[in-house]
Amino acid sequence: MSPADSSPATNVPGRASRPDSLPHLDILGHDVYEHGAPHAAYDEFRSTAPVAWINETAANGHDGHGFWSLTAHRDVVAVHKDWRTFSSEVGGTEIEELEHDAPALAARRTMLETDPPRHTKLRQLVNPAFSRMAVETYAQHATSLMAEVLDDAMAAAHTTGSVDGVRAVARELPIRMITGLLGVPDADAPQLFHWADQIVYNADPDYSPAVSDRTDTDPYRLLPFRSPVSLKVLDYVQRLSAARRGVAGGDVLSVLANALVDGHPLTEREQGTFFLLLLIAGNETTRHALSHGLLALAEHPDVLPRLRAQPELLDSATEEVLRWTCPQLHFRRTATAATEIGGIKIAAGEKVVTWYLAANFDPTVFADPHTFDIERTPNPHVTFGGGGPHLCLGQWMARLEVRTFLAALAQRADRVELAGEPRRVRSNFINGLKLLPLHLVPR
Ligand code: HEM
Question: Does a structural domain hold residue 380?
C-alpha cells in the first residue's frame, strides 16, 4: 500500500461509517505479532464480539474499507463451507482490496482466489500428488530426511552448545520434502526458498526489500504479495516451464506446463502464480508448525518422554501441535449477497476475515484450550481452514511432517530447552518464528 493512501475507513466516500467493535484491541497490526500471538485479545473478541467490525487505519497499517472479523470456531467453519455466499474469487483471500483493481486481481489470481467450478478443475491438476494415499507413500522418505536433519542439528548443538531451531530443523524438512514434488533441481532450491521467504514475510524488514505497510508498494501491485521478488520466481518458472512443455512428468512444473483446463493451456502468468502458491504454501506454513512445535516442547518438557513411552499418542500429539501452532493466521472472503453471521447483518461486497488461531482456542469447542494436551480427542482444529473447497491441499503432507518430526525427535532427544529469546516474524498472516535458540539435550 502507499502510506499516503492510509485514510481511515470511516472517511471513505460511499461507505457507511461504522465504529470499531472493540477499539481498544488490535489483532490486525503486524507489530502486534512480533510480541507473540494476541491470545488475550482473540479471547476478548470471541467472547464479546465474535463477529466484530475492524476499520483499517494508518494505526494498524491497512488502507481498505474495514472488514468483519470472525474469531468463533462455528463462524469460521460456516463461512468456509458456504463458498457461494462467501467468495474467494470476488476480491481474493488477502485483506488487501483487490476487487477495486481488476488488473491486479487477475494478474495475481491462483486457485486459492478462484471459486468452483473452475477452482475444482485447477485443484484436480495437483490433487494426485497431495492425496492422503499419495502422501502415505512418502512416509519412508520423510523419515530418512528427518533423521538426516535432526542428526545434523544434534551434532551442531553438541559442538556449539545450541542451535537455531528454525534454521537447523524447522526450515529444512518442508523444503526437502517439497523440492522434488515441485520439479525444482536441488541446486536451485536454496535460491528459490530464499525468494519465498522474502515474498511471504512481506511485512518484516528482516526479509522483505519492500515492507508492505512502510513502503510504497504500488509499483508492485500486479505481483503476488506486492513483492518485487515475486517477479524473480515468475521468471524462473517461465524459463523452466519452456523445457517441460510436451514432456510427460508428474512434478508440479511439468503438470502446469502441459495442463489443459476447459481445453485451454494455462497462461505463463497462471503457471507462475500457481507454482508460487505451492512453493510458499508447501514450506512456509509447515516450517512454523515445526518451529512453534519445538517451542511448545521446550515449554512442556514431559512431552518427549511420554511420546517415547507411548508412541500410540503420536497421532493425537500431531493434531495438538497443529491446533496450537496454527501457522496460517487468517484468510479472507467477500460476501456475494446480503447475509447474516451470528445475528450480525453483513452487506454484499463486505469483507469477512477468518482468524484460525482464535478459532482453535474457542472454549466452546476445545476444553481448556490454553492447555497443550497431546491426548486431546477429538481435535477439530481449523489450522487447515474451516472446510469447503479450499481446505488445505497439503494437509496430509503437513501431518506426515509433524508426526515424523515428533517421532524422530523423541527417539533422539530427552528434551529441548530454550537457549535464548525466540524472535517472531512481523506478520499478521503467518504465525512464524525467525529465531529459536535451543539446547537439544540427547537421551
Ligand atoms: C501446517 C501446515 C499448513 C497450514 C497451516 C496450511 C494452511 C492452509 C489453509 C488455512 C488453507 C485454506 C485457505 C482458504 O480456505 O482460503 C490452505 C490452503 C492451501 N494449502 Fe495449506 N497449509 C499447510 C501446509 C500445506 C502444504 C504442505 C501444502 C503443499 C503444497 C499446502 C498447499 C495449500 C494449497 C495449494 C492451498 C489452496 C487450496 C485451494 O485453494 O484449494 N499447504 N492451507
Answer: no
